[in-house]
Design a protein that fits this description.
Blueprint (H helix, E strand, L loop, with lengths): L1 H24 L6 H5 L7 E3 L2 E5 L4 E12 L2 E11 L4 E12 L2 E11 L4 E5 L3 E5 L2 E5 L1 E5 L4 E12 L2 E11 L4 E2 L2
Antiparallel strand pairs: 1-3, 2-3, 3-4, 4-5, 5-6, 6-7, 6-8, 7-10, 8-9, 9-11, 10-11, 11-12, 12-13
């Protein structure tokens, strides 16, 4: 009898785990990538865990969150995504990588249809070879290639340090907006 209980217990645990994993990706016919594919932007999303919240209509993602859209990669520990409006709220080491550019912050809010992300927290920054900019908060528009910093801005370009309370930087021209 003892030998029979262990295999049954293992089989039961396997089916319980299978049900939990499958149930977290689909709720009442909702799947994140299928819902996102309805948009002309077609972002691709992955995370360790996903859940569709019926109350607010948001997908809640946790663990290794990755959202690819417009040639950008958004990463974070957790995120909430509205599949209809393509709004993203990301938290926990939020970052956007675009080629050699890397934007970082404690949290970000992005409107993928408006080509804009806002970064918040104590460590907002933009980096690429030869350029480093940090500020209290930051807004980036990947269509215009303009990044705007406010509050305690420090930028290092071509080996020279500069400080300001506000900075608008044109990444395409590699110069401040005048």
């Amino acid at each position: 009898m003892k030998h029979m209980r262990i295999p049954l217990l293992v089989i039961g645990m396997f089916f319980s785990l299978l049900t939990l994993c499958h149930g977290s990706d689909t709720v009442d016919g909702h799947t994140l990538n299928a819902d996102m594919a309805k948009s002309k932007y077609r972002p691709v999303v992955s995370a360790d865990q996903s859940f569709y919240n019926e109350d607010n209509g948001l997908y809640e993602l946790a663990g290794n969150v990755r959202i690819q859209c417009h040639g950008l990669l958004i990463t974070a520990a957790t995120a909430k995504v509205n599949a209809n409006t393509l709004q993203v709220w990301a938290d926990g080491g939020a970052a956007i990588t675009e080629g050699e550019l890397r934007f970082t912050g404690d949290a970000l809010y992005a409107e993928l249809t408006e080509n804009t992300a806002w970064f918040f927290g104590t460590r907002c920054g933009c980096e690429r070879p030869g350029l480093l900019i940090h500020g209290d908060n930051m807004r980036y528009n990947w269509q215009t290639r303009i990044v705007i910093f406010d509050g305690h801005v420090l930028w290092v370009q071509k080996g020279k340090n500069h400080t300001s309370s506000h900075l608008e930087f044109d990444l395409a021209k590699n110069d401040i907006v005048r």
